Amino acid sequence: MNDKNEKIRLILFGPPGVGKGTQAKILSAKLNIFHVSTGDMLRNEVATDTEFGRTIRKILESGQLVPDDLMIEIIKKVIQSPQAENGFILDGFPRTLPQAEALTRLLVSLEMRLKMVISMEIKAEIVVERLSNRRVCRQCGMIYNILTDKVNDTMKCEKCGGELFQRDDDKPDIVRKRLNVYENMTAPVKFYYAKAGILRTIDAAGSIQSVTDKILGMLNIK
Q1: CA–CA separation, 133 vs 22, rounded Å?
Q2: pLDDT class for 202, splitting at 50, 70, 90?
Q3: Which domains does the chain have, with CATH numbers?
Q4: Is 178 a catalytic residue?
Q5: Which of 54, 58, 167, 177 is an active site residue?
Q6: C-alpha closest to that of 56 among 46, 47, 64
Q7: What tens digit of pLDDT does each residue of 13-32 get?
Q8: Catalytic residue among 9, 130, 135, 178
Q9: Active-site choice (9, 20, 135, 190)
């Protein structure tokens, strides 16, 4: 594949609670490339209230997953937008082998090349501890951590005064199930990119800054 213009195009992998979204935002700002979050993409499509957006809304409201072909259509539109002109970070996609293969076909058709696929790895029990100590404001969605933010379940959100609560999927047993699902689903995807020679893994257990530094080091960026 001949890339018309070599740019930084990344995929960030990582289990729930690894800090993937945080790193994507930092790298997006640092490298001036677009953070492509699948959750944000879907919400933006729904907000357009086009026929396509209404189709996505119906799928989401029914509790189903958006089919791969529709996800690829959305990603195609986003990575060709002016926002992604300097490059992009894909966060939350691909999750399965068919999605990875479909993404490769899309990038080939657009004459784009992935620079790197970075897998942020962390021990399961660290993730369980992180997420089980997470509390969310019921009113504004602000996220707190009992250990680092020194909050408890009786305190109110410092931003809006809303009630703090623990989401069901942040409870330890559910977190462990989510981690198992993630590992089983993404193992073939990681193997796919390892075979392509572009997979890199990092230990994501350190501080936010140390993880950022590791990723920038892999990219040979200071």
Answers
A1: 17
A2: very high
A3: 8-122+180-218 (3.40.50.300)
A4: yes
A5: 167
A6: 46
A7: 999 889 898 999 999 999 99
A8: 178
A9: 20
